[in-house]
Amino acid sequence: SAINDWGTTTANNCTFTENTATSYGVVYNASSSTSTYNNCIFHNNSGASSYDEGYESSGTLTYRKCIISGTIHGNVTQTSTISTSDPSFNNPGSDDFSLSSSSNAVDAADATYAPSDDILGVSRPQGAGDDVGCYEYLLNTWTGSSSTVWSNAANWSTGVVPGNSESIVIANVS
Predict the structure, then answer these.
(1) What's the distance, CA 27 to chain centroid?
(2) For residue 112, is pLDDT > 90?
(3) What distance in Å separates the CA atoms of residue 54 and residue 111, rounded to the nearest whole number?
(4) Could you give the CA distance from residue 153 to residue 163 in angstroms, rounded to a whole number?
C-alpha cells in the first residue's frame, strides 16, 4: 500500500495487486499531497472502505494510463484509463504477475513515463510500445539451444514452455 501525507509521490510502471489496506484503499492520498501514478496496474486489492484501488481525501491523486479493475474514490483524477478489467496476469495463483500475451497492458503504456527497463531488467519496449505495470511482456521464442524437445524449458527464450494459447515465435531456419 502507498500512503502520501504532506508530500509528493510519483510512481511509474508499478503493479499493485493482492494488497490489503487497513483503511481506505491500496493508495491513500491525504493532507494536500500530490500523487501521480503513471502506467500502473491496480488489481484485486482490498481495503476497509469500498475504494479498494485508491482514495483521495485532500490534495491531488492522479492515475494516468492505468489499468484499474476495482473501485476508486470519486476525487481521484483518471487520465486515459486503459481498462477496468482483469489485466490477465500469467499465473497470479502462484504469485506470477507477469503479463500474458492477451493482457490489455501489452503495448498500452505512455512511453513518456516508462522506465528503460522493467523490474527484471528487460529493456522496454519489446513490442510495438511499452507495457503497463512492472513487467514488460516477452514474446516466447524457440531457440532449440538445448535439444529438439518442445517441452524442454531450456529451448525457449523465456525459460518457460509455452501454453496452448500463448503466442510464440519459431524462426525460419530453412
Answers:
(1) 15
(2) yes
(3) 24
(4) 12
- Three state DSSP letters for the chain: CEEEECCEEEEECCEEECCECCCCCCEEEECCEEEEEECCEEECCECCCCCCCEEECCEEEEEECCEECCCECCCCEEECCCECCCCCEEEHHHCEEEECCCCCCCCCCCCCCCCCECCCCCECCCCCCCCCCCCCCCCEEECCCCCCCCCCHHHECCCCCCCCCCCEECCCCC
What is the radius of gyration, based on Cα positions, of the chain? 18
Yes or no: say if 10 and 38 are a contact pair by the CB < 8 Å rule. Answer: yes
Nearest partner of 18 among 91, 119, 100, 75, judged by Cα: 91
Whether 3 shows a pLDDT value over 80: the answer reads no
Distance, in Å, from the CA atom of 7 to the CA atom of 122, rounded to the nearest integer, reads 31
Quote the cell numbers at residue 30: 491525504
pLDDT digits (tens, 9 = 90+) for 17-67: 999 988 888 998 888 899 999 999 999 999 878 889 998 888 899 999 999
Phi, psi of 83 (to 5 degrees): -165, 160
Q: How far is C-alpha 10 from the chain's CA centre? A: 16
